[in-house]
Amino acid sequence: MVPKCGYTRKAVAAARGGPTATVELDLSALPGGADAFDKAARYCYGANFEISVRNAAALLCAAAFLDMQPADGGLARRVEEFLAKVGLRTLPSAVAVLRSCEGLLPAAEELGVAQRSADAIALRICNEVLFPTRSPPEWWTGELAALSPASFHKVITALRCRRAEPEVLVAAATAYAELLLAEVLADGHAADSGVHRALVESVVAVLPSTDDALLPAAFLCRLLHVGVTIGASAKTCRDLELRVAAVLDQATAGDLLTVALDGAGERVQNIDTVRSIITAFVEREASSAGGANGRSRRASLSGAGALQGGAMQTVAKTVDELAAEIATEEALPISKFVGLAGAVTKEARATHDCLYRAVDVYLKAHPALDEIEKEKVCSVMDPLKLSYQGRLHASQNKRLPLQAVLSALYYDQLKLRSGNGGGDEGGGWDAYGRMMRSSAAGSARMQAKADASLARENEALRSELARMRAYVSGMQQSKGSGPSSRTTAAAGKKGMSLWLLGSVSRTLSRLNPFKAGGWAKDTSSIVDRKTGAMHAAKPKRRRFSIS
Which Pfam families match (predicted)? Predict the structure, then answer.
């Protein structure tokens, strides 16, 4: 082997003891192990050996390790010719070569054979998408299931470099995860071993990013349910939550219900996870709407622009349907229900009929709630945004708290006053808004007028008191004038006092809320509790004296 193997030649040259010395070679780090060394030795001796897609990468790495680089190219040249003509010409053979590289790391990456195999796979996939050679057209997705997550990630990266369509990335990722995690997805509640947990985490880590391709919501929800059930890392679960939030407008209530249920699929358990998804979606929509419209972050979060989009309304409807589904859970606390239903703001819903249905289902499933708890449940909806049929049902619903029923009845009364009846929902809502605004403005104006009038009356009273003091002072100065003067002064003082008392009484009567109105107490007839007789209570005659 010395003429064709530099590694062996160096070992022999370094040996001591003459030609009869024994040479020991350390081949523990040889890529490919004993099989690769056997074929390398056969090549050195000129014997026949077979190069296949399963050992081509190992022979190439072994040739580099043994330094088999003679002038004619040696073993490495023969392997390169095989890869170019056979090994990387078809998709199945390229997948086999890449899979064989998984046990040859890092030598396969240093020689570039792993990357070349991934590039060949990406090229064959793109050609197959453009010009299908088999049926069904996506047969190639099943070939990728043989790869490890690290090798699959190399293929995805190669597809991105070739600018493959997002649909290609989605098909590859979903098929790979479905096939690789078939056992885990089929029986997620029993998959509690560390092997399954590590497998799920590794698969999620190599999925294409949301910027490259948006994976189906149903697939992501199933994957998130499995991750939460088997106790995957917080990073993995958060990554899946953000992925679901990116396509939440495509999800159904059943998809989110899959996430909310426990591993056995019998009880609602993961409400916080669903709420995190909805919150991430709302923040994402608000941020994108704020950037598109040139608004500030605060305005986009509080304004209705981001909350009135089609995606937001779709998600709000999905959340309402999900709330109605989980409302039947007897162990579901009010805080969980309110937190889920309130994750999407009230303004995002054009109508609250679906939300009212969820509230009604929850109240029906929890009949022991008191009035305060019922009001807390109903706080997520606005009775004034119900349709006419919804308000009609709510006004007759005995399960609702009194406040919600009165709100619905009050809105119908406003609509009747405005002459819209029950047909024009938008007009009634606008009329309600105009009436409320005009009522508030009128109340403010009336309050301002009352305050101004009261201030004027107080100023007039102060002036009258000042004049009275001046008059009394003048009368005191003329005390010693004589009987007639004293009589005149006393009469004048009595008249002035009566005039002042009348003025003060008139002023105070305007401030008396119980004077001769709806608030006046009726004491005309009082029943004696002991005898049961009716006694007429005559009002007392009060006499005002200034003497």
Answer: NPH3 (PF03000)
Sign of dihedral through CA atoms 349, 427, 397, 399?
A: positive
Task: Report angle CA 283, 289, 290 to the nearest 5 degrees.
Answer: 85
**48 plus 3 within the same structural domain:** yes
Token readout for 220 is 């992501």
Shared domain for 315 and 258, answered yes or no, is yes
Query: Do both 11 and 82 map to the same domain?
Result: yes
Core vs surface per residue 307-317: b (16+ CB within 10 A) or e? bebebbbebbb
Structure-block tokens of residue 90: 């078809």
Is residue 7 within a helix (H) or strand (E), and if so which, with residue range?
helix 6-14
Residues 6+ apart with CB under 8 A from 285: 306, 307, 309, 311, 312
Distant-in-sequence, close-in-space partners of 226: CB < 8 Å, separation ≥ 6: 181, 184, 185, 188, 191, 200, 232
CA distance 199 to 164: 26
Structural contact between residues 207 and 149, judged by C-beta atoms closer than 8 angstroms? no
Angle between helices 149-161 and 166-180 (to 10 degrees): 170
Distance CA 477, CA 90 (A): 128
Residue 381, number of CB atoms within 10 A of its CB = 26
Contact of 169 with 207, CB cutoff 8 Å: no
Residue with tokens 């508030």: 440
Q: Is 119 found in the same domain as 161?
A: yes
Q: Which residues contact 244 (CB under 8 A, 6 or more apart)?
A: 217, 220, 221, 224, 251, 259, 277
Number of domains in the chain: 3
pTM above 0.70, yes or no: no
Q: Which of 4, 59, 15, 70 is nearest to 37 (CA)?
A: 59
- Residues of the chain falling short of pLDDT 70: 16-20, 70-73, 187-193, 289-309, 410-445, 448-449, 451, 479-547
- Domain shared by 79 and 125, yes or no: no
- Domain boundary (350, 379, 401) is at 350
User: For residues 140 and 61, what is the distance between their CA atoms, to the nearest angstrom?
Assistant: 28
Q: Which residues pair with 459 in a beta bridge?
A: none
270-298 burial: b if 16+ Cβ within 10 Å, else e: bbebbbbbbebbbebbbeebbeeeebeee
